[in-house]
């Protein structure tokens, strides 16, 4: 189905111009497009943020329930930090110029309970190519109780999605760690996508099962054995960790595309899009909180989503510097450069979009 989409490449002048200018930025300053010491420090920090609370829990240093719950929250924040600031760049091969480093750190996806291969297929192959195109971008195709696109089927329950969506966002990584990856792998195999990664369904199913078991042993079985608490308290802590991580990830990714200002273009009956790929990315993507250094540092530069979608092969530590180049070039070509000043403003816009999409096809 995805092969039927064809972008209009008759005029690629914007992309050719902006790519030339970004290339010149790195060349004239003799800067690598990949990660630097900042990435190494951030990687150590994020893993420490995840593992330190785990060690404190497993060794029974604290016994106060509120402190223990706080440690679970910290683990969830650490999980999201690993996903946003480490795994994401590695899966795009932008963390390092060395393929083995990218491949190794891409497996940090297992820390979140997910599959790096499934992530690459859904995120790199589908989402980055067919952004906000109904039926092709799986990021706007959640389970039926959520509606992220004005062209998606409408159900009466969607009237309340602006209220209940946040709960299901928190369940995202819990679903990854249990059922979603298995169903995704089966679907991608039927779509013939595994062949492009020179692998087979049987091989990946064995790997997926192995890492799922390993993940559950580390995050659930070992705490059940060693932590001096009732089993149900440990399960609650496990759910707190996942809810924190899932909600954190959703609050970064959703305001980048499912907001009031972005477009949801459809192809013609023959599969042709009106824009070329780069212009399409500008119309379907939004930035937020670009002036917040600390926020940008923690979320892996994904508040510079426009820069990321145009240049996913560039490490996120460079997004802030190349953003003015992209904004200026977009203005020259009379193309949009969407951005919300604050993170809260972006989340609020997403909430309003959920409300509009829940009112029905005509309203959306």
**From the helix content, strand content and strand pairing, which structural class follows?**
mainly alpha
Provide the residue-averaged pLDDT.
95
What level of helicity do the residues show? 55-70%
- Global outline: globular
Q: What is the number of E strands?
A: 2
The number of helical runs is 14
Domain module count: 1
Q: Would you identify the regions where 5 or more consecutive residues have pLDDT less than 50?
A: none
| Strand percentage | under 5%
Strand order of the largest sheet: 1-2
Radius of gyration: 21 Å
User: Biggest β-sheet, characterized?
Assistant: 2 strands, parallel
Q: What is the ordering of alpha helices and beta strands? A: HHHHHHHHHHEHHHEH
* N/C terminus separation: 25 Å
What is this structure, in a nutshell?
By secondary structure, the chain is mainly α. The protein contains 14 helices and 2 strands.
Tags for this model:
mainly alpha, 14 helices, 2 strands, 364 residues
Describe the structure.
- This protein is an all-alpha fold and 364 residues long.
- It has one domain (2-6, 28-141, 168-358).
- It is 59% helix and 2% strand.
- The protein contains 14 helices and 2 strands; from the N terminus they run H-H-H-H-H-H-H-H-H-H-E-H-H-H-E-H.
- Helix 7 packs antiparallel against helix 8 (201-226).
- The two termini are 25 Å apart.
